[in-house]
From TrEMBL:
Domain Cytochrome c: 21-109
Keywords: Heme, Iron, Metal-binding, Signal
InterPro entries (alphabetical): Cyt_c-like_dom (IPR009056), Cyt_c-like_dom_sf (IPR036909), Cyt_c_Planctomycete-type (IPR011429), DUF1585 (IPR011478), DUF1587 (IPR013036), DUF1588 (IPR013039), DUF1592 (IPR013042), DUF1595 (IPR013043)
Organism: Humisphaera borealis
Chain positions covered by the region annotation Disordered: 382-403
Region forming the signal peptide: 1-24
Name of protein: DUF1592 domain-containing protein
GO molecular function, one term: electron transfer activity
Superkingdom in the source lineage: Bacteria
Amino acid sequence: MVREPLLVLSLVWSSLVVASTSAAATPNGFAEKIQPFIEAHCVGCHGPDSQKAGLRLDTLSPDLNDQGASTQWTHVYDKLLSGEMPPKNRPRPSQQDAQGVVEFLRGQLHTASLQQQQMNGRVVVRRLNGTEYQNTLQDLLGTRVPLKEMLPEDNSAFGFDNVSKVLDLSSTHLLRYQEAAGAAITSVVPIHPPIPFSDRRTGLEMSKKGPNFQQTLGRSCKLQGEALIVYSKLPRYGLCSTGFAPTAGRYRVKMSVCAVGGEGKPIPVGLMTVEQSGRESPVLKDVREIPHCKPQVIELEFDLQRRQAFVVNLLTTWDSREFKKPIDEYTGPGLLVEWMSMEGPIDAFPPPSYNTLFAGVPLKARSVVKAEAERARVPTIAPDRSAQSWHSDPLEPASSDPRKDADRLIRDFLPRAFRRPVNKEVADFYVGRVLRKLDEKYSFYDAMQYGYKLALCSPDSLFLIDSPANTPDASGRLTSTLLDDYSLAQRLSYFLCSTSPDSELLAAATRNELSRPAVLHAQVERLLNSPGAARFTKNFAGQWLDLRKIDATIPDPKLFPDFDALLLWSMPLETEKFFEEVLRKDLSLLEFVESDWSMINQRLAEVYGIPGVSGAAFQKVKLPPGSHRGGVMTQASVLKVTADGTRTSPVLRGRWVLERIVGKPPAPPPPDVPAIEPDIRGATTIRQQLDKHRNTPACASCHIHIDPPGFALETFDPIGNWRDFYRVTVKSNRGNVQLKNLNGRPVYRGLDVETGGVTPDGKVFGGIDDYKKILLNDKDQLARNLAQKLLVYSTGAEIQFADREVVEKIVASVRARNYGFRSLIHEVVQSRVFLNK
């Protein structure tokens, strides 16, 4: 029997509750092994009179099938293993007693965790997050319509937004997913036949058509005959742009341009789009280097939405408005634009996306479809009909045999939408729902939209429901949690490409070959070498290293006048290209901590003080001795996302390093303890202020771990510059900061930066170079951290106790291969954790 999709959704969520319940069980030997140890060494801090960190052990349930109790006992195990419990200022148990308790807890926690996984699997069900749903529908339908902005923002857990535990489904979620599905479906149906659009304007014409453009002429730009020469970034109210696209599509843009002035060098320019409303700032899409020569024609193709225009603009910090002489005497670098043109749309008609849903069905004006259905007089559609008229009477699919076409199209669509074969009963259900709408006098187009939306918002499409290869037994328990090949295909594809499996993956699943290690290895290689792997960089590295937050803060222009749009554009690209280089060449994951190279362009080289790098294009550059760069921690992107735009904080950066690189995040304060602000009167430096925290008992246990990596990075400012002192805007006797392109805005020297520190285990370091060496002393922990993050991201579930032995096997394997990052991904995919439900 086929159930209604909404009913199935409720049943899916009900299964979560059922799967989480089990009979209470106290491990054999608990009373003899654990309770005496707890009473002797732990209840003084975690008993009836005191519950430090909110933990009470004398009454903690020994039932390890209880999620809360298991979490607490895991915490106890970790503290005992690290030697942090009991604290060093309290009587210590013998090594033999402590080791016995640790071994007993390890065995019992592992057994309980593994039993839970064998009964229910690690991940029962997971909703596609906004990014995955957008990618899935765009790839499935061949549409470019943005959908993620229509969906509620996803929560994150354990560093990622694809973790099942926080991907809930409210009525609002379901409504928004339906709206997004509807937008995707309608986007594949063109509103009208191609209406050729062509716009060409000279620099002079641009200056006349741009609103308030006259305010910039003579200050940041000038006219030279029909050409426009731009010397500074143009404001929103006067842009060097094409006309606005009358309809969405792909357009061919041409411009006759060259660089002028300066030192005869090329100039980087931003390629942007802007909305006709004028309320939004232009959106940077790419950067192109314009050569210094005679004007030459550059041709581009751009996807534009209706009422969007293409814009070319400078991205630099310099400002010719500070030039006090006539603009004709200015000799600095600039961009000369003779003319710009745009024509299109250049897409095929009907677009390929139309055939993904309506192959073989002709397009007709809605008025024609209605007249034919009512057997009325069919209106004549003029061949030169205007776009406005078409928007009032758009095209729509017009079937001559609606029931037959509906049956054919729905049955063809469902396996693609559900990412696996669909049996006749399920297909009959969806076809029947569409036929019922036709019986209710819905138009063919409306009935098909209903059917497609129903499928795209069904559990089979909206959720990743991992199916085991073997069916459950009579009691409903799993006989094996090994994934079937179709579930494995979708897990692999969403891991590496953030979208549904392609035809080759599904074909391997159909042949039941994907689960073979050699075939799985080959498919991982294929996907990592495919264009889709760029999404792995964007979504995994973007969250692991917080690159998604690159626009969250705007550096204070008074303190950092050397920050500009070109630097902002370059920052995340360096880290992404660095990540991709390590992955592509199977370089050691230790390169993320320390490397003698990076992927930079001229703008970043200027910030890093690296000579000999020119152009906006990124290139692999060997770092000079003493550069203090190498690895991701000292890249400008990371240094920006770990600052607030004005100041740096050793606490923020220290916590980031512990969470993202080391894999030993500091414990959050107990929920019933408010944030403590020590009295920092008299403290003039950051180190003095944090010493006040370190001397406060409630703060010391965390700050002893957080502060060292934070101070190791304190010699870098919020935009990635190396510094020996802080910048301030108040004049002092320390003098000015000597920077290029300050445009007359002075920045002054503040206090000197305090460097160095001591790690919790007593290792002294003088700066970031020394601290990196300390981190590299424990290579296994760096690999362990990254293996855990890859397992969380790839499966959508947190690391459970039974997973720890899998992590250790992965670490041991990659250790023998110089900790290769690509090898690590292969080990993750071949692991028990990845291959099972």
